[in-house]
């Protein structure tokens, strides 16, 4: 305590000067709006910069949660579109056929190959999340592939960029069907084979899923016709289809569960036995 008194006594003049200076600055700021605005602006600049940086960090940390929430919402909305009898009218859920919001599993691609003839993806959802072999996999741009194998929390997907892949597809405008395959050449193109010569086709026509299987609902986007080849031996077209999807850059995907899948498969097996 004695040291404090000694310090004040020795520096009394300086302390008095600082006190008077502080009082004069306070009175000056209070009585002059210009000075007051400058002081406040300087304080806002400093605090604003700090708050902005804190907010940027917070937004960055929340991006993952926001992306997952957006993916879930996107899945719900797309499921409604898949079930609509046409694209201009959404019917009630209990009267819809195909996929409903409860039959889509949102997942994420954690590994993707696209530079071999037999390409596969790995996703971070498995049997514990309800994923089974032969389920269709899509994203917001179109089809991605078909579930191959599953573990508890992961699954492998046969990419559409796989020479063994074969998917039912059709011309959107005419319902002429073909088989969607890949020739192993370009990551941006697949081929639609066995399209009847009776079909009216043009470059730029849209190709969608045909719906003649339990894997994909009808009318999911695939791509557009880029080139047309004619096989004179069998009177069928082979079409080069430019994919809507960038298969080299995949993030969130949607796994489609079909409520009628098991029933249809069992019925077809029964018919095969009867034959």
Query: What's the architecture of the domain at 102-259 in CATH terms?
Result: Beta Barrel
> How many beta-strand segments?
12
Structural class: alpha+beta
Assembly state of the chains shown: single chain
**Terminal residue distance:** 107 Å
Q: How would you state the average pLDDT, rounded?
A: 76
**Approximately how much beta-strand content do the residues carry?**
25-35%
Note poorly predicted spans. Answer: 36-52, 84-99
CATH class of the domain at 102-259: Mainly Beta
Your description of this structure?
The protein is of the alpha+beta class and 275 residues long. It has a domain at 102-259: Beta Barrel (Thrombin, subunit H). Helices cover 34% and strands 30% of the residues. It is built from four helices and twelve strands; from the N terminus they run αααββββββββββββα. It has helices at residues 2-10, 12-31, 33-83, 261-274; strands spanning 104-112, 118-123, 136-139, 142-150, 155-162, 167-171, 177-181, 189-196, 206-209, 221-231, 236-243, 252-256. The strands form two sheets. The protein has a six-stranded antiparallel beta barrel. Strands 6-7-8-11-10-9 form a six-stranded antiparallel barrel. A hairpin with a 7-residue loop joins strand 7 and strand 8 (189-196). Helix 2 crosses helix 3 (33-83).
